[in-house]
Amino acid sequence: MIIIMDNGGQYVHRIWRTLRYLGVEAKIIPNTTPLDEIKAMNPRGIIFSGGPDINRTGNCSAILEHYDEFNVPILGICLGHQLIAKHFGGRVGRGDKAEYSLVEIEIIEENDIFRGLSGKLRVWESHMDEVKEPPKRFRLLARSETCPVEAMKHESLPIYGVQFHPEVSHTEHGAEVYRNFAELCGEL
């Protein structure tokens, strides 16, 4: 099962629906769920959803602090992406302009979550803040003209972040991003 940490984002149920469509068992839980309860669910992967406030992400940071106790792939979406960057020492700040539209991203490195997808994708963005500089131990996977860090991955751990929303129908090949993540988790 993949756990979806609900950070109050408008698309959290679309994440769940996309995973279910792919045949992956998933469960949305409040981001305030205690770590012991999350561990008892034996997740095979964890997704940090988007949301409105990086200071209201509940126990998402605690999961990263205690990563070795979970040892599963993690995918941060939008705010979740920013939280991962901030936790590991990256720089997060206001974008030059708020993005609520389709944006073309350039995939720099296919890696695991972009496996089979190369070149450019049109994706749905809905954010004011963005990752300005990735943490030192992260590799850049994608960028756009308006956002320097559209996607990133920890160099040795299966921890990923994407600024865009793969779960929204406007995002090209969004379901494939979730399929690739589910395969990393051993769920497909």
Q: How would you describe this structure to a colleague?
A:
This protein is an alpha/beta fold and 188 residues long. The chain has a single domain (2-184), classed as Class I glutamine amidotransferase (GATase) domain (Rossmann fold). Helix content is 24%, strand content 34%. It has 6 helices and 9 strands. The protein has a 9-stranded mixed beta sheet with strand order 2-1-3-4-9-8-7-5-6, sandwiched between helices. The longest helix is centred in the last third of the chain and has 11 residues, at 174-184. It is globular. The N and C termini lie close together (11 Å). The mean pLDDT is 93.
Which keywords apply here?
single chain, 188 residues, alpha/beta, Rossmann fold, nine-stranded mixed sheet, globular
| Tally of DSSP β-strands | 9
| CATH level 1 class label | Alpha Beta
Largest sheet: 9 strands, mixed
N- to C-terminal distance = 11 Å
Fold blueprint:
Blueprint: E1 2-6, H1 12-21, E2 26-30, H2 35-40, E3 45-48, H3 60-65, H4 67-70, E4 74-77, H5 79-87, E5 91-107, E6 120-133, E7 138-144, E8 151-154, E9 159-162, H6 174-184
Parallel strand pairs: 1-2, 1-3, 3-4, 4-9
Antiparallel strand pairs: 5-6, 5-7, 7-8, 8-9
Put the structure in a nutshell.
With about 190 residues, the protein is of the alpha/beta class. Helix content is about 25%, strand content about 35%. It is built from six helices and nine strands.
